Amino acid sequence: METEKKQSSAVSDVGAWALNVVSSVGLIMANKQLMSPSGYAFVFATTLTGFHFSMTALIGLVSNATGNSTRKRVPLWELFWFSIVANTSITGMNLSLMLNSVGFYQISKLSMIPVVCVMEWILHNKHYSKKVKIAVIVVVVGVGVCTVTDVKVNAQGFTCAFVAVLSTSLQQISIGSLQAKYSIGSFELLSQTAPIQALSLLLFGPFVDYYLSGKLLASYKFSSAAFFFILLSCSLAVFCNISQYLCIGRFSATSFQVLGHMKTVCVLVLGWLLFDSELTLKNILGMVIAIIGMVIYSCAVEADKQTDSKVIPNRKDASEEDVELLKQQLDESSPHKDVELGKSQP
């Protein structure tokens, strides 16, 4: 019975990761076609994210109305706080990409792994084994080799990147914390945060996009093909958002960051296959190193889980033995009670 549960859990874990990788890579490919000058030149990234969360909120509303999901109460102030952090992450990333070189932008994204580790240690007193730390370093080096090229930075860009990294790391940690704190499922939490994020991004997104691109959303000429890719992007974003909450809820923000770089590898390969992007020996070497790091990380985390599962039963047995011993000592030292007379007998 226990073996079947473990197998079922493993299948669910793989399914969650597969859904996240496939939906994320598909979303990146769809957005590349939608936003690139050679595609449909829809350069309004922040507003597009508002469309994504609007679609997610609509699906959550329908699911709650039809009884397919239950609504557990999360304090409104926590939902607002989470939405502010999440929207700061989105805006910060967009500004960082605009103000910095692509190389520094990639370095800032890679820095999220150690930042998440440090923040989980500070906020949740979480510790990592030596093998996990080594695996994280290998992944960072591998992804850095295959993605980082020119590195140029300025004060404004560095500030935006700093804010983006901190807010993104805090957002991902908060997803797991809120799910554990209120015993709420990933989709239930997402359906409560999505409307707030959608409303705020649709209100302020066009202004951010105008600052980034110098173009107004009202001036964009929508075509049927562009509209189709916007719908495709929104649909893929729903699966991407759900799988992100699901993965972080089942694992941790650190695991999501480390194993999530498999998406980077997939994007590079698909870019080479579909968009004729250049794939150099340096890219291939970096991808191999990153994949090796991910394998080491997975093995290290699994080994830590097995170690913890062995330690916990031993502690439980020890505590049970202590309780029994204490009971025996109390029985030997305490006087016997006479129930009928209500008096103690020596």
Task: List its traits.
single chain; 346 residues; globular; disordered C terminus; 2% strand; two-stranded antiparallel ribbon; mainly alpha
What does this structure look like?
It contains 12 helices and 2 strands. By secondary structure, it is mainly alpha-helical. A two-stranded antiparallel ribbon has the order 1-2. Strand 1 (336-338) and strand 2 (343-345) form a beta hairpin.
Question: What topology, given as strand order, has the largest sheet?
Answer: 1-2
Q: How would the global form be characterised?
A: globular
- Topology, number of strands: 2
- Which range does the strand content fall in? under 5%
Q: Helix amount, in percent?
A: over 70%
Protein structure class: mainly alpha
From N to C, what is the helix and strand string? Answer: HHHHHHHHHHHHEE
Q: Uncertain spans, ≥5 residues at pLDDT below 50?
A: 315-319, 335-346
Q: Give the termini separation.
A: 51 Å
Oligomeric form: single chain
Report the radius of gyration as a whole number of Å: 25 Å
Major sheet: size, sense and barrel closure?
A: 2 strands, antiparallel
Give the secondary structure arrangement, pairings included.
Layout: H1 2-35, H2 45-65, H3 76-99, H4 102-110, H5 112-124, H6 130-147, H7 155-182, H8 186-213, H9 224-250, H10 253-260, H11 262-274, H12 281-333, E1 336-338, E2 343-345
Antiparallel strand pairs: 1-2
